Records
---
Amino acid sequence: MNVPQDLGYTKEHEWLRVADGVATVGITAFATDSLGDIVYLQLPSVGDTVTAGEVCGEIESTKSVSELYAPAGGEIVEVNDAAVDSPEIVNTDPYGDGWLFRVRTAEVPELLDAAAYVALTDGEV
């Protein structure tokens, strides 16, 4: 399983990359494999305020509908319109072009590193 070392991870299978107070958020390859083919994304809008740990959207796949949690709180500053228009990109490139949204955050919660995330998912496989 592909788990980049430079990201932080949540137990809900989101990843974060933080730079200059802005966190880019996506879902992990483990999540995309579990969900199957993603067909629809409901993401927060630019200007929305999200709270860490709270539901901020939905991901619909051919298997199910899953809630999307905000891994960090703050103001949404960008949404990946390409992923909304072509949600399959989340399956094919979850850590690159398949990112979901960016949030300006003053505080990043404690996250799992890659090794801890692998240990978590090994128990779920």
---
Amino acid sequence: MPATRPRAIGLLTGYLADRALGDPRRGHPVAGFGAAAAGLETLTYRDSRGAGVLHVAVLLGALAAGGAAAESAAGRRPAGAAAALAAATWVALGGRSLARTGTQLADLLDAGDLDAARGLLPSLCGRDPATLDADGLARAALESVAENTSDAAVAPLVWAAVGGVPGVLVYRGANTLDAMVGYRSPRYTRFGWAAARFDDLANYLPARVCAALVVACAPAVGGSPAAAIRAWRRDAARHPSPNAGVVEAAFAGALGVRLGGPTPYHHGLEIRPTLGDGDPPGSADLRRAARLSTLVQCAAAALAAGLLLAIGAGRTGR
């Protein structure tokens, strides 16, 4: 069996486990990694880039070593290799929970329960929900669904295909560190620099794969591929993130909505550029975004596994 075939089987099994089970309700390894990172921060924190580099290197180095050890323990047995990657991929993915939470928030907005919607928003993004009305909540949730379709679904699948167990674990760790310390707040402007830059590098290719899949899947939710491409090309570069802007612009164009504008965080207000055309999104648009996210995730899993199988078939044919 070509080495790429167990990897393809493991990747698809991990994806299907996420679709069937979602995130573990208790004892999620990502939460454990976050707790370890927070504990280490009490020792490594200094208001400097060098301290942030050390923080990231220690934590991601540990994940790389652990992932390599797990892959080595699986040995050359195809079933063991597939099982190890399936477990790592499931741990790294958050696609089902993302789409489900987006739909739940849309339901709360339809019911007029803004307090409950504000309580749910922090599970999607780090914005301050206290100042947001219904339109602000819908926009914040849709932007988060768009960005995290890449971060929590497409990127783990890409890194599982490219780097196996170490690759997908290091990616998930990098993304978690960026969410913890990658903010432009007074505390993290320098210390979080390394986490933010590493996350930008790790997401560069996956974000563009995700945007391309948004274009391809747009008609399935009544969207426009041409408008998605136009918004991606015209608006993405104006976003402060080199990757989030690509995916958010593609979603905005595909759904025919306008994203961006004043964006409140706990550390202060940021003014984001406009992405896409049309009206600001509402609950119906958020529900369509959740469906589009689910379709893109499925397409990404099929694409990643298909490429691995094609590579394996090519090697066998030589």
---
Amino acid sequence: MSQDYPIGTQGKPWGEAEKQEWYAQQTKQRDYENDVIRRIDHLREQFDVETYGELNYAGNSYPLFVVRSRKWRAELPTVLVTGGVHGYETSGVHGALYFLETEAVNHLARFNIIVAPCLSPWGYETINRWNPDAIDPNRSFKANSPAQECALIMTYLNQHKLAPDVHIDLHETTDTDNSEFRPAKAARDGTVNTNWNIPDGFYLVADSQRSEPDFQRAIIETVKPVTHIAPADEDGCLIGAPMVQEGVIEYDGKGLGLCMGLTDARFVTTTEVYPDSANTNPVECVDAQVAAIKGALEYAAKAL
């Protein structure tokens, strides 16, 4: 048994037996069709809805959807919104959907909009960071991706020659990062787990190769009236990374295989809300995601 996790042997990476043991313990806790597909269907009057692939896991089929501007105009810049790369991060999925239901129409004159609300529906249903193969999709956006969730959206964008100018990827940081997912990762990889300080509040992860600090700042300022911004810890960091400005850290998107490295968009960011905070609630977290997209588009509309 791993020191911090009930599957595997301390210091030894998982083989197929351990991955199957982990998979066997996962159970459906909510319904993708009812929670997500039904809301997508209600958007068909205003937007084009396309299926870009299907995941099949243990006899269960999960169709994957993008919702697009109906009147696509080649002369307009394009914005991509992705949610549910980590399926358990609830407000990422529901923030993407709520943006389409409320705010998106206000930007159709200035942008082509494409939204993939839930890239990892199995993870959504089982409240998981990984897919059934114990792979983290948000480390797998790379050539010959081992994660179907990544490969399918990458193929779709390439086939349709979609080159977004703006990409907002919607995420959460939760207490289960420390109680479940980081210990599981260490067990899977045969390493020692070190938990991180979970920030209390909203923050952004910018791409270190195209950080656009004014763009990130504009998003933070738009979110402030909706929910609180995470302060740095005693080391001046958020989740172990130095805070480069209020509420912003940086990762190498493409180098790490992150979803924000999916495109070459000039303006790119990853949102992070903290739903387990005593100072917020699920509705506020969704509203913060929508505010972040709004702030991103209002800034980009002036800059592009």
